[in-house]
Amino acid sequence: MKKAAIALLLSLSLTEISGSAFAQEPISYVNTLMGTESTYQFSNGNTYPAVAVPWGMNFWSPQTGDNRSGWMYSYNDKEIRGFRQTHQPSPWINDYGTFAIMPISGDLKMVAKERGATYKQANQLAQPNYYRVTFDNGTTTELTATSRGSIFSIRFAPGQKKYVVVDAYDGGSAISISKDRRRITGYVKNNSGGVPANFANYFVIEFDKPILACGTSADDVLADGKLSAEAAKTAAYIQPDVKDGEVLTVRVASSFISPEQAELNFKKEVANKSFENVRKEASDKWNSLMGRIKVEGGSNEQLRTFYSCLYRVLLFPREFYEFDAAGMPTYYSPYDGKIHSGYMYTDNGFWDTFRAVHPLFTLVYPEVSERIMQSLVNVYNESGFLPEWASPGHRGCMIGNNSLSLITDAWMKGIRNFDANKALEAMVHQATTENEIHSVGRHGAPAYFKLGYVPYPDYNESTAKTLEYAYADWCLSQFAASLGKKDISKRFEKSSYSYRNVFDTKLGFVRGKDKNGKWIEPFDAVEWGGPFTEGSSWHWTWSVMHNVEDLSKLFGGHEAMGKRLDSLFTAPNTYKVGTYGFVIHEIAEMVALNMGQYAHGNQPIQHAIYLYNHVGQPWKAQYHLRDVMAKLYNAGSRGYCGDEDNGQTSAWYVFTAMGFYPVTPGKPEYVMGSPLFRKMTLSLSNGKKFVVEADNNSNANVYIESAQLKGKTFTKNFLTHKQIVDGGTLKVKMSSKPNKARGTKVSDLPYSLDKK
After folding, report:
1. Residue 143 · residue 153 · CB < 8 Å
2. What's the pLDDT at 78?
């Protein structure tokens, strides 16, 4: 009897989540709370439960942390202080243009730390398009979202006073109440950097019930009845005329352009729509886009993890453009502070996302890549540099010239609706010019081109920068060659070998080197920091994605490199904190994995397992890839093994579960792995389908025994982009035993610059 009751409750719950059959809609598998049980000291994702549409200009999230804290939501917190319009891509980058809305039952409390309402996880439902929570005081809040707007549905606890507080935070803001129009309007200027002086987010909030009483506060001084405030920190409250049992509907929209554009966004996206209309529209968008990748034949947990990861991939970068009265895209530039026609995207760290997020877009969502490429050229025109970490403008974070990877990868896969000559100009400038913001341009460029490497300690993270610059130079060389610019191509192909200058062939590790050409002593491969970024030599030695064949020669050949890859998982998980001086969270996460020196929680090493394919040992890649998916991912609040990082750690899972991965973005090719599901179907933008069928697949049968592509024997360790977009079926037969004869010929190995 109990089992039957539980089954019934589960069925009802799942039906409520999806609105239809649970197994048929991708959105029904998504847990937006995946990765939210994180702290400053240890990350299980460092995510928040964003209510949004894919790539939306605004997200919304319950806020459990302090105002302006990057850790806005933590799974273990017991109270919610507001529902926050957020643009935060990472807690380390923080937020901008944010404000919060909070229903209050009982006594009016304006201050965030005082107004929090306790709740239980069992009374919270978090989905991509919808969030609902019932506080312990009995008040229920629901919200759904468009790209530039949202709708709240609030049912207050009976028998208590009812208020809604709008918190415009500190950082400069203004707020105004119109009782006649039942509105609160204003702007917020709060940010964490990367904005011009005239930056603002203008908002419109409209209630469907009359306002009985109201007030505003300026710098925490409350004035009952006062209709406006402008100060470093402002807030407002209204007391709506809502009876017990009635629902208060709150419609919201905003703009980075002007108050008038905020009004236009309001009219277009929420003004004449019901809560359920907007909720369904958002659901349809998620299902349509996630549905382009259909996976079947896995466990429910695997399906939940896959689509929860895909949800994360489709959040960033953010649309930073709006539509004018004629329906044309227009945007406020966070680079020059002016209004421009066209597309702008932001909130992305390419150091993370060049690896798998943007390659997934070029394959499955090329229409988005088209707009992103136009956006990159726009940024160069408005700031003189390409973006590397934008939020919303240039931010000083991470290293490398990975914007060059995005452009090259898109171009080589046929995305060509942007100004290629202007892009080439931007790429050469990016690769040869220093900037006061070290992550923009090329920090250490003069030394890099003079010495063939970035010297240490003259430049922090010097060896990591050398490796990143070498790969970027390869990208630039490929792009220039495709445009017939032979001199530029040859110049940067030559410097793409710079990784050789920081590889110690005696030790088999990359190292720091001073400006006189001497190795930095003492050396310990487990020491973090110094010449490396968020890692040690164990993690950075593999960052020669464009020429793994030559990397293997530096090791002493395929067999030697294969053994070093083996030792990555068998070496002790020891460390030295190095120049960091303390155990940063990435170190703690690597140790917790207990996978030797393999540190999947951070990006530099995430491609390394696939390199077994380049040395003719694909079965080892197949084993480790399935092991990582099984052990380091789940759909729960501790679902990741480190920062999720704008979709990159999720995109690794999505690609790997499909059975292939873009080891070398810029080369239209994907390296084979071990498909997780018995069937995967890609519905491509050209109307064709690419299917991977994995017969006899199971948790034990992780090895590819044999394969056929379009009915013909297929032994290669890679798929070309063309093979996928032309459609067809890849059939693989899985086994519990490795086939050590398959994928071992030179012709079977993936791309390398020096592969003959």
Report:
1. yes
2. 96
